[in-house]
């Protein structure tokens, strides 16, 4: 049975969705009224921009927020229950536009999450008048592009590359409720401000579940929320596009290394949303199509589609920053649940291997899966390592034609505009980096590579 979620705040009255529909909803979503169960703070962004957000731009933020919260509120099941059916009803200002793009939006969300979303829209009835802007709002704004800053290594590399080439980027961050991630984001922002004090802007937007108010509507407690957060990148791209559209800019950068962007399933058991699609070229293409239909000239692009993480660290970050500064960025999927990065999730494995391949010192992790893999047999960390090494072994052992047969997703990447030859070349360089690091530093893991 589909999970039903309805936005009730911001002018959504019972008569819009129907009293019966509200009563039958699994969760009501609200980030505007006194009953809000999520927080959406746009003040800092709005003050930094040279113009106010248009009604359609505010709709984009609200729609992405609703999808993001629905993704969090409905946890996945196991096995056959992994794919979710979610019915989501949202309130918008520009109803005709959203009804016209409902199908491509649904395709985008499905490609991103592999879930079956049904998204419907109803008109906002009591829109508040625009807030008066401060006289100095947007004063001195001179950005020439927008870049998304997550607090991770790849987005840091994107920021450094832009700043070193003289770009005046408006950096956008999304603050969630995770204090560890926020600290990493603040560290990265402070690092950029210290190294390039006169050449960048940073806007932080806080979007997260929030039931701290006694009047707040219910929302699933942290232990009952979905952890994968596949829809976060849609929210991120939306914030970047809205910023660019409001400022009259054309370029929005979402930096991510080619290995995670290509997102080839590590094994045949990791198809669909078991492999992240946060910067999938197909997702970006569909999102850019929505921007085009909105009449915006901005386009999202990933500058690192054909680079490995080790190459970003070695060629972009190391010449500009110290190893300690680079390691201030956080990559772990389990961030905030431990006092350090876990070491066993796929992002931790990719980060550790990339850091070492680029010549940086090793870091301390909760789990030293690379040093002593067999002692962790039966854990998720061991499964992740074996699956990663399975892909590395496959890439090293097959021809390009055989790899296309093994990973038909490569053809999907080509349909979205990616160059297959460059994708395969990047994957071969990545596999070579992994083999070199394991052979020289982690003999026990290298032995696994020989047998998978």
Write the layout of secondary structure elements.
Elements: E1 3-7, H1 14-17, H2 19-24, E2 27-29, E3 38-41, H3 43-48, H4 55-73, E4 85-92, H5 95-100, H6 102-113, E5 116-123, E6 145-148, H7 153-164, E7 169-175, H8 179-195, E8 200-209, H9 232-247, E9 251-253, H10 258-262, H11 281-293, E10 299-301, H12 309-317, H13 323-326, H14 346-357, H15 380-397, H16 400-406, H17 409-415, H18 420-441, H19 443-451
Helix pairs in contact: 4-9, 6-11, 7-12, 12-14, 14-18, 15-18, 18-19
Give the tags:
single chain, 452 residues, alpha/beta, Rossmann fold, 3 domains, 19 helices, 10 strands
Description:
This protein is an alpha/beta fold. It folds into three domains: 3-123, no CATH class; 145-216 and 226-301, HUPs (Rossmann fold, 3-Layer(aba) Sandwich), CATH 3.40.50.620; 333-451, no CATH class. Helix content is 45%, strand content 12%. A six-stranded mixed sheet has the order 3-8-7-6-9-10, sandwiched between helices. Strands 2-1-4-5 form a four-stranded parallel sheet. Helix 6 runs antiparallel to helix 11 and helix 14 (346-357) crosses helix 18. The longest helix is centred in the C-terminal third of the chain and has 22 residues, at 420-441. 46% of the residues are buried. The model has no long low-confidence stretch (mean pLDDT 90).
């Amino acid at each position: 049975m589909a999970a039903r979620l309805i936005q009730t705040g911001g002018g959504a009255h019972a008569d819009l969705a129907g009293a019966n529909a509200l009563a039958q909803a699994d969760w009501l979503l609200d980030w505007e009224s006194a009953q809000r169960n999520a927080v959406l703070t746009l003040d800092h962004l709005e003050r930094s921009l040279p113009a106010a957000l248009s009604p359609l731009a505010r709709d984009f933020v609200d729609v992405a927020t609703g999808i993001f919260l629905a993704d969090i509120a409905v946890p996945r099941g196991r096995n056959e229950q992994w794919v979710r059916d979610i019915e989501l009803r949202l309130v918008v200002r520009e109803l005709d536009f959203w009804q016209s793009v409902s199908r491509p939006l649904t395709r985008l969300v499905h490609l991103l999450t592999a879930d079956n979303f049904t998204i419907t829209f109803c008109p906002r009835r009591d829109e508040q008048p625009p807030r008066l802007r401060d006289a100095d709002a947007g004063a001195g704004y001179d950005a020439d592009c927008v870049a998304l800053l997550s607090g991770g290594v790849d987005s840091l590399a994107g920021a450094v590359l832009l700043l070193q080439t003289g770009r005046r980027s408006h950096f956008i961050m999304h603050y969630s409720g995770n204090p560890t991630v926020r600290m990493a984001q603040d560290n990265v922002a402070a690092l950029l401000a210290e190294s390039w004090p006169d050449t960048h802007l940073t806007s932080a937007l806080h979007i997260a579940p929030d039931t701290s108010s006694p009047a707040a509507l219910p929302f699933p407690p942290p232990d009952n929320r979905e952890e994968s957060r596949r829809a976060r990148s849609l929210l991120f791209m939306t914030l970047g596009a809205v910023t660019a559209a409001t400022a009259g800019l054309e370029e929005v950068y979402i930096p991510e290394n080619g290995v995670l962007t290509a997102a080839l399933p590590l094994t045949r058991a990791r198809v669909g949303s078991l492999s992240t699609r946060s910067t999938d070229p197909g997702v970006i293409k569909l999102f850019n199509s929505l921007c085009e239909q909105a009449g915006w000239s901005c386009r999202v692009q990933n500058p690192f589609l054909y680079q490995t993480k080790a190459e970003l660290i070695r060629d972009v970050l190391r010449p500009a920053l110290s190893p300690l500064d680079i390691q201030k960025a956080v990559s772990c999927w389990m961030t905030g649940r431990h006092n350090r990065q876990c070491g066993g999730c796929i992002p931790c494995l990719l980060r550790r291997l990339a850091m070492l391949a680029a010549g940086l010192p090793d870091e301390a992790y909760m789990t030293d899966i690379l040093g002593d893999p067999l002692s962790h047999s039966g854990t998720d960390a061991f499964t992740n390592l074996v699956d990663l090494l399975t892909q590395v072994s496959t890439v090293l052992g097959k021809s390009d034609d055989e790899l296309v047969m093994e990973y038909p997703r490569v053809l999907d990447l080509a349909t979205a505009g990616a160059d297959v030859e460059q994708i395969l070349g990047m994957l071969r360089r990545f596999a070579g980096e992994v083999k070199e690091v394991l052979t020289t530093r982690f003999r026990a893991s290298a032995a696994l590579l020989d047998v998978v």
